[in-house]
Amino acid sequence: MKTVLWIAALLSSIASVVAFDDSGDLLRRSDDELAAMLSNAGPRKQRTILTILIQRYRLPGQPVIDGGIYPAEDAYPRDRVVSPSLISGLVLLANNQTNAISTRTVSLHLMRVLLARTNIVQVFENLLPGSDLQIRLDAAWTIVQYANSNHLSISPSVVSTLAEILTFKANDGQLIEALNCTASLRDKAEMCAPAVLALTKHRSRQVRTAARDALKEIERKRPREQ
Fold first, then answer.
1. Which single residue of 12, 44, 141, 150 has CA 20 to 30 Å from 104?
2. Around Cβ 39, how many Cβ atoms within 10 Å?
3. Which of 104, 100, 93, 98 has its CA nearest to residue 39?
4. How far, in Å, are 65, 88, 138 from residue 107 at the CA level?
């Protein structure tokens, strides 16, 4: 939840500074043109492009960003085909560790928007082995939420990634996110039980509470003896 709120605040702040950019030209560009510009644009322009694309690909009826800098008409229709060049451009952006973390996070947010239109779960799977903890955590959360929403099995790579993150020296917020995600693993959460149990003795009260809540979910999903 904190990640979602942080992304919303970030997108809102981007909206407030776009007035200083030549956003009018960007708004007239096609999706493929914007995707081609991503690799060579500066950080602020990259985030502006990503935000424009989020507005275009959000599901019909979803609100636009506060500030009114984008056209008020509805988003693309649900049957709009997602450009392959856009997906590949986002993958490169998210994987490039020289990019600002804020830019990579917004690119992940756009990929989550696209996930509602086309199955690009494998894109998020490919981000799991990376070195950036927050990107890995965001990717794991996205896969878990998609799997739960569509009644799909959660892949072992997601479970092992979360089990690893729970033993890292992550900050308290990241640990709480990882614990909340672990609690959503359904019957796959058992693998994370030792790490979750260890976190019930963490120095932070919030982390301890999240760990106890995750343990309750793990216990609830364990098969009952006959």
1. 150
2. 12
3. 93
4. 16, 11, 11
Owner of token pair 């500074």: 17
User: Alpha helix locations (H) across 39-132?
Assistant: 43-57, 84-95, 101-115, 121-125
How far is residue 115's CA from residue 10's CA, in Å, rounded to a whole number? 20
How many residues are listed for the chain in this entry?
A: 226
pLDDT of residue 193: 94
Domain residue spans of the chain: 1-118, 132-226
At residue 222, the pLDDT reads: 72
To the nearest 10 degrees (0 to 180), the angle between helices 133-149 and 2-17 is: 110
Mean pLDDT in order along the chain per 10 residues (226 residues) = 52 46 78 90 90 87 52 74 88 84 88 89 90 89 92 93 90 95 92 95 96 93 60
Token pair belonging to 171: 């900050």
In this structure, the dihedral spanned by the alpha carbons of residues 3, 169, 207 and 186, taken in order and rounded to 10 degrees, is 70
Q: Residue 225 gets which letter from DSSP?
A: P
User: Do 58 and 75 form a contact (C-beta atoms < 8 A)?
Assistant: yes
**Two structure tokens written together for 7:** 């992304």
The Cα–Cα gap between 38 and 169 comes to 33
Instruction: Map residue 118 onto helix, strand or coil.
Output: coil
| Other beta carbons less than 10 A from residue 225's beta carbon | 4
